[in-house]
C-alpha cells in the first residue's frame, strides 16, 4: 500500500527502493511533510500526463501483462495490436468490439 497513516512519522517502505528514472534522486522522507505530499498526490492523482503518475490507460497494462503471463506464440505484433485496441483513453480500457 502506498498511502498509509504511518507515513506521518515513518518513511513508507517503497521510499527505500531506488527511484525510477523520472523521479528525483533528491526525494527524501520528512515527517509530516511527506504525509502532506502523499495526500496532495492522491488528490491530484489523475491530472498527470498519460503514462505518468496515476494516469493509466488500457494500453499501459499490455506490456506488463505480456511480461508476467508470457503467452505461447505471442509476438511483438500481437502486443502492438492489443495496445492499439486498448488505446481508448483514460479510465476507459479496451474496446469490446
Describe the 3D structure.
The protein is mainly alpha-helical and 97 residues long. Helices cover 30% and strands 0% of the residues. The chain has helices at 33-43, 62-69, 76-85. The model has no long low-confidence stretch (mean pLDDT 82).
Query: Low-confidence parts, pLDDT < 50 over ≥5 residues?
Result: none
Please trace the helix and strand order, writing H or E for each element. Answer: HHH
Helicity range = 25-40%
Q: What's the end-to-end separation, in Å? A: 34 Å
Strand content: under 5%
Based on Cα principal axes, name the global outline: elongated
Oligomer: single chain
Quickly give the structural class: mainly alpha
Please count the helical segments. Answer: 3
Please provide the count of β strands.
Answer: 0
Mind telling me the C-alpha Rg? Answer: 17 Å
Main sheet makeup: none
Q: Write down the overall mean pLDDT.
A: 82
Which key phrases capture this entry?
single chain; 97 residues; mainly alpha; 3 helices; 30% helix; elongated
Write the layout of secondary structure elements.
Elements: H1 33-43, H2 62-69, H3 76-85
Brief rundown of the structure:
30% of the residues lie in helices and 0% in strands.
Amino acid at each position: 500500500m502506498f498511502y498509509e497513516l504511518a507515513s506521518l512519522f515513518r518513511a513508507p517502505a517503497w521510499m527505500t527502493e531506488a527511484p525510477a528514472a523520472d523521479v528525483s534522486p533528491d526525494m527524501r522522507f520528512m515527517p509530516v511533510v511527506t504525509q502532506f505530499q502523499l495526500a496532495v498526490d492522491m488528490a491530484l492523482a489523475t491530472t498527470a500526463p498519460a503514462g505518468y503518475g496515476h494516469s493509466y490507460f488500457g494500453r499501459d497494462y499490455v506490456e506488463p501483462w505480456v511480461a508476467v503471463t508470457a503467452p505461447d506464440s505471442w509476438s511483438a505484433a500481437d502486443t502492438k495490436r492489443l495496445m492499439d485496441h486498448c488505446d481508448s483513453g483514460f479510465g476507459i480500457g479496451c474496446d469490446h468490439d
